[in-house]
Amino acid sequence: MSEPQQKLHATNHYLHYPDEKDIPTYLAYGFRPVFLLLAPYMIITMILWGLVWAGIINLPFMNDTLTWHVYEMIFGILTAGAMAFLTTGIPELFPGMVPFVGKRLKYIMILWIAGRISFWFIDYLGVYIVAALNLAMLLWLIWFAKDAVLDKLQRHASLGYALVAIFVIEVWFFASQAGLASTNGMSILKVALGAIVVLILLALRRVNMEAVNELMEDKGIDDIYVSRPPKTNLAVFAVILFTIVEFLYPQNSALGWLGLATGAAILAITGDYILKDEFILNQPFVLYLASILVMLSAGYALMGWDLLNDKIDAINHFRHFITSGGVGLAYLVVMIIIGWIHTGRHLTSNIYTHLMVGFMILATLMRSLIPFFEEYISELYLWSSIVWTIPFMIYIKVFFSFLLSPRADGIKG
Question: Residue ranges of the domains in the chain?
Answer without folding.
Answer: 3-403
